[in-house]
Amino acid sequence: MNDMTPPKDERAVALKGLGASRKRVEDVRFTQGKGNYVDDLKLPGMLFGDFVRSPYAHARIKSINSEKAKALPGVVAVLTAADLAPLNLHWMPTLAGDVQMVLADGKVLFQGQEVAFVVASDRYVAADAVELVEVEYEELPVVVDPFKAQAPDAPVLREDLAGKTSGAHGPRRHHNHIFTWEQGDRDATEKVLSSADVVAEEMIYYHRTHPCPLETCGCVASMDKVNGKLTVHGTFQAPHAVRTVASLISGIAEHNIRIISPDIGGGFGNKVGVYPGYICSIVASIVTGKPVKWIEDRMENLMATAFARDYWMKGRISATKDGRITGLSCHVTADHGAFDACADPTKFPAGFFNICTGSYDIPVAHLAVDGVYTNKAPGGVAYRCSFRVTEAAYFIERMIEVLAIKLGMDAAELRTKNFIRKEQFPYQSALGWEYDSGDYHTAWDKALKAVDYTGLRREQAERIADFKAGKTRQLLGIGLTHFTEIVGAGPVKNCDILGLGMFDSCEIRIHPTGSAIARLGTISQGQGHATTFAQILATEIGLPADDITVEEGDTDTAPYGLGTYGSRSTPVAGAATAMAGRKIRAKAQMIAAYLLEVHDDDVEWDIDRFVVKGAPERFKTMKEIAFAAYNQAIPGLEPGLEAVSYYDPPNMTYPFGAYICVMEIDVDTGEHKIRQFYALDDCGTRINPMIIEGQVHGGATEGYAIAMGQEIAYDEIGNVKTGTLMDFFLPTSWETPHYTTDFTVTPSPHHPIGAKGVGESPNVGSVPAFSNAVHDAFRAFGLTQSHMPHDHWRIWKVAHDLGMHG
Ligand code: PCD
């Protein structure tokens, strides 16, 4: 090394690589109102589409009269199922192997269902015309309860499936039954449960809710009839998959379709599925020859696009008298609404719910999930969780608490006693997963110590005594959770969506002057990929992150990938990025050796350069190497410095965490106050600690909303009672608790940089922590289980039913 060379640590810091809390490069435009969202797009001659939607949850359509609407000046077309039928587009395939009406075909099955699509010169004319379309309905009996839906005499919801005794996931045993999915060993589990010392049994309900991104769903479809190219800008979390599906459905050759996801204002799973609005906009653009924009309003988003959860989970868990868990059984009744449009990898009709043995070493388990049709909106998306993992984590973390009550044991101690031990990894779970790595005891002990758990329990005991003595009306709840997530779908061999294997990709081009562009198959919706993926590369290829542009979301330029959801970007595309970087570095090594006139093996990597072994003063920086790649004829090497990697992960990654919520509850008003919320996350190698902290704050806030008030509620005739933000709880900074974040680092053994996902973890972990805090506050007064969301009224009701109001 010569005197001019800055020391290693200084060079490493200058790269802003792995581990740096690099400021988000996206925020320069976001904080100045310069983002580029779908609704910012204005194309010449653009038309606007808007839906006529059903006011009924179940009704036959007797007639649709659009004459008055068509007569309104500015209205260009009104599409109904009859117009789409000749193109065979009045129904579309769902991600779950079912079919779904694009526009109501003979009947409607949920409130807010799309009935007709009005296309007009501007949005206001379209909205006025929607009011003028006359639809005659004949009401039919409504089923909103998935248990009643399975009664022998329940109304037939899906007449199109009449007589079909099997569906995409096997046999159907009733006209409203979709599938049964079973995992684990039923007989062995029953045997253990029937002879166990202690068995706790409970029905745990995870209510229906909605991702509710600030930006609703929308698109602009533009068919260029001259060159035959269809361009669709849209809020898509998986742009390439949308392109392939659009080609298969429409018959337009795939190279003639360009899908662009511009900036996206939050996805949270809401923007994974395909909605009628996309199909109708594309058809309308083909029919009119003009670009057609469709943007949902807030009510449409809440009422009609993909819901989340709605799982009734009946659990039984057994243990020895001293609290060693011996078996677990779970039966889920899954309310999928009118069509099975659940967004899961094809072979997993209940997603990865079979992670429901959680962080515990449970020797035998059995799971059965029954999917059921009801008169509710379709969906079943992974709202900030990897395909039903939040339901699974909620289930097991509630069951642990219920078991602790039955055993008369401290719930923290029960967890400690049953955690999978560090030396058991890779761990084979009873329901079929291989957990890659973990160190649960270390994380748990750190968390308990951080909140002074023993002190809190002492305080709680005093509070209970004070309450009983009439000195206070405030209870103290300590909500514990230790969760294990499963993120990073693939592997291709068992994960696909509509037949597309779930790999991901990165393509890098290094420019002659030593800056670069990387393109990925994923798409950020706010996560900060442009910041973090450049950091992975900076460390791999020794060029500063600030000199690397990261681009996603345009199918004409990005390599094929399966998109961003299920916290898969870091585990899959992040791995592809590291691997592509390593290909660059391998070629750079040959170039450096040539320039330094030594053998390839005689140079070694040193942060941002190759150095001749034993002669540190002789080196070539990556910047020099990049230039040489374009201006030297190097024998045996092609010019240029580019690489692409398509990465099929060997396994998923299993991030985990320990969350503790301390909550004050007013017995008389049902109000709560979060006194402390501690979140310890282990996502393996941390790329950007600041972004991770932001992810935890965001996810925990969504979890807070879900646990404490947010829901999509229906009345008995299928009216959505929470269709506006007046009724649907979306916390503002006023309600949002303060969080303390912490971490441990247990790298993934199979990921090239050891990273696991983190974006969803805080939702998976926080919901049970908040809910357990509510339950824990009332444990001493006899509460075992009460359903979320724990809004003021429900908490008040719990106290009331326990006789605490005198
Ligand atoms: N990271 C770091 N480190 C680690 C991991 C991670 O740093 N270790 C970071 C990365 O890079 C990014 C983030 O963090 O940036 C995240 O990541 P992940 O976990 O991998 O994930 P992704 O794939 O990217 O994403 C996804 C997620 C999800 S799934 C969701 S819901 C949500 C989350 O993400 N969403 C959202 N977050 C968020 N944020 C925002 N802002 N926005 C949004 O929208 Mo789903 O399934 O879809 O339901």
From TrEMBL:
Residues 32-141 form the Aldehyde oxidase/xanthine dehydrogenase a/b hammerhead domain. It is an enzyme of class 1 (oxidoreductase). It comes from the Bacteria. The keyword Metal-binding does not apply. SUPFAM superfamilies: CO dehydrogenase molybdoprotein N-domain-like (SSF54665), Molybdenum cofactor-binding domain (SSF56003). GO terms for molecular function: anaerobic carbon-monoxide dehydrogenase activity. Keywords: Molybdenum, Oxidoreductase. InterPro entries: Ald_Oxase/Xan_DH_a/b, Ald_Oxase/Xan_DH_a/b_sf, Ald_Oxase/xanthine_DH-like, AldOxase/xan_DH_MoCoBD1, AldOxase/xan_DH_MoCoBD2, AldOxase/xan_DH_Mopterin-bd_sf, CO_Mo_DH_lsu. Its EC number is 1.2.7.4. The keyword Oxidoreductase applies. This is Carbon-monoxide dehydrogenase large subunit. It comes from Rhizobium aquaticum. The lineage of its organism: Bacteria, Pseudomonadati, Pseudomonadota, Alphaproteobacteria, Hyphomicrobiales.
